[in-house]
Amino acid sequence: MHADPTPLYHRIYLVLREQILSHRFDPAVPMPSELELARSFSVSRVTLRKTLEHLEREGLILRQRGRGTFARPPASPSAVQADVTGLVENLLAMGLATQVQVLEFDYAPTPPDVAHDMGTRPGTVAQRAVRLRSLKGTPFSYAETYVREDIGRTFDAGDLAETPLLRLIEMAGVKIGGAGQRVSASAADHTVATLLEVDIGAPLLSIKRVVRDEEGSAIERIRALYRPDMYEFELDLTLSNGPDGTLWRPSQTVL
Fold this sequence. Notes:
By secondary structure, the protein is an alpha+beta fold. The chain is 30% helix and 36% strand. The strands form four sheets. A six-stranded antiparallel sheet has the order 4-5-6-9-8-7. Strands 1-2 form a two-stranded antiparallel ribbon. A two-stranded parallel ribbon has the order 3-10. Helix 1 (8-21) packs across helix 3 and helix 2 crosses helix 3 (45-57). The longest helix is centred in the N-terminal third of the chain and has 14 residues, at 8-21.
């Protein structure tokens, strides 16, 4: 028997889970019936029932005989909000409002992708750290950072656990000039899923950011994975003229 790495019932589970967590279903009103849900997803009732059993084990639904199935979104901490304006200020504020656990801290050769992003040769030694960040005891981000070695030598794991990284960089005498970042989606592997308390393969928000000093040299490269139910990414936009009419552009803010 072929083992599908992403069973159909699990894909449906991820969709319904997201809808429950985002309050698409009124907890006081029964959700659509098994038959209605099976039809909407074009699957058998057997497959749909397996999905509901998974949701029930997690406490996300309550099934009552004769009444139906009710959504039970957990009372979780408010999502952490972040945007790309006021970079230093926003990240420092987030660091001060959350708790961080340093899982790894060492000095290691940069892999090719990190070296490419930082504009250095692969194998260049940098200070590497892996951190797990939580809000009110609930983990919401897993981050791996590489910091230029001369800056990374100015602090240790204890400092990183107590002080936001950007603050430590500034304390090292470096003036931050700006940053560039890419946002995409990623699936949780076994390690990250365990730490973030999500299922293997669960969708995560992935942000890669390269921080630069005033001269434009890369000083830090971070890849952070966020639980989408715990982290909101916001971007202010302004309307401007484009080659084919109007288009949206990010608002400009001086750091």
